[in-house]
Amino acid sequence: MASDPTIAQVTMTLAAFAATGATPRPSGETLEQQTTRIISGIDAQLRDPSLATQDAWELVWLALSEANANMAFLVRSTNGSNEFAVVARGTDADWTDILEDLDVGTVVPFPQSGSPTTIKVSKGAMDAFQRVINARSIASPSPNATLAQALSVALKAAPASPQPTVYLTGHSLGGCIASMLAPYLQAQTWPKQPKFAVMTYAAPTAGVQSFVDYFDSVPWVIDERQNNAYDLVPHAWADLDTTAGWYPSPGPQATEEVKLLIDTIAKRTNGNVYVQPGSLCLMNTGYTSFAEKLVNKTTQDFLGQVAHQHANSTYLELVGAPDTPSGPVVTALNPTFGAAGDRVIINGTGFRQDSMVDFGQFACTDRTVDLSGNKITAQVPAGSGVVHVRVTNTLGTSPAIAMSQFAYGGPAPVVVSSVSPVSGKVGTPVTINGSGFAQGATVHFKDKATDSVKFVSTNQIIATAPGLLDVQQTVNITVTVGKGTSPTSPDDEFTYTGR
After folding, report:
1. Are 443 and 461 in contact (CB under 8 A)?
2. Could you tell me which of 231, 336, 421, 443 has the fewest CB atoms within 10 Å of its CB?
3. pTM above 0.90, yes or no
4. How far apart are alpha carbons 80 and 56 in whole angstroms?
């Protein structure tokens, strides 16, 4: 970065680091193996001078709780500012999973807060908090230590001047946990008493009014919750129902299915009234930052836009920080079916020499990573069924997507990757790209089969948009070959513009 980064840019970058290695290797790995992989990935990013952290921080402690439930880490500055940051891991997973993980139907006391009176938080938030404070590191740099123990040792070794500052930060669920870690740590006695600052991003709230009253009474140096105005997750659980009216032009608007889903999840509070703590700082209030390909009035586009608005990369953009390095992504396989012992070319991005390959739960032991970082040649391990081929390295694991499927014994999985044009009238010829296509394939626009299908190759078909009762709607295009039908996604959407 050209100038000194802001504290928002630094803390959001640290919060994004917490997503490193969040998904265990599909074929399995021990907690120690995953912890070691996460530490390697975070260390590499901390040393990157092009990021907002500017190679001015070092890892002090990191712990992953049992079953990969929660993770937190502690870093300290190396530039003489005498600053520390406690970072809790959030998630970029499906937003319904994020919210359902937080058991908000029950509130419980939060005695670790330091409040002289009883304050209450959701049971789900309390469970996550306890997993973090009880977790012990199982690898260097601070083996067999809890967060409080590691911070105490670090503060004892810190200079007396300037006064140490400890930042509590996290994105999504990590921000929720950070808002509980802050009063817990602030209430304790330290070798050198630090100042405490809280900077959360996209955090659902942890507690009810009693929690907020106490939190807001603590003299924080900084107390901010940075939220994207069009991120659904921070509206949990104070006013989740307001999000059913999203999104403004150009969309997407919530479908009836989405509205029902939001209403159902909002009722999980069981009558408990949740309140957000801290000073709200809203970004993207004009809805100028959005995923341009996810604006149709479909459930898929709405959920996709929610994921985009909530993503670490979007928050880094909104605070003006460089994006963190991307983990591996698989974009295509060749071939997409075969048997154990066959060779498969895996195309994608972010492949490194340390990349490991899994066919579903089956580990690949013979693979060669091209120096370009965009190709891996892998020998198919023993396995069965239709599986996702995924690549894992120190930054993370590639997502399971339709184009990463491999079928043991065949036939090739049928997948639609894109359509062109994406809109038009009845009778418009539409080029459909993907894989697994064959002569005799049938093509449906929503539930209506077209009678004009031209097979071009196993990767391309041209079909004519058939007439529908409603020719002012967005529909999914699916291809069926034999008994296999392509899964739907925003990539196969076609919008009718009339007859």
Report:
1. yes
2. 421
3. yes
4. 9
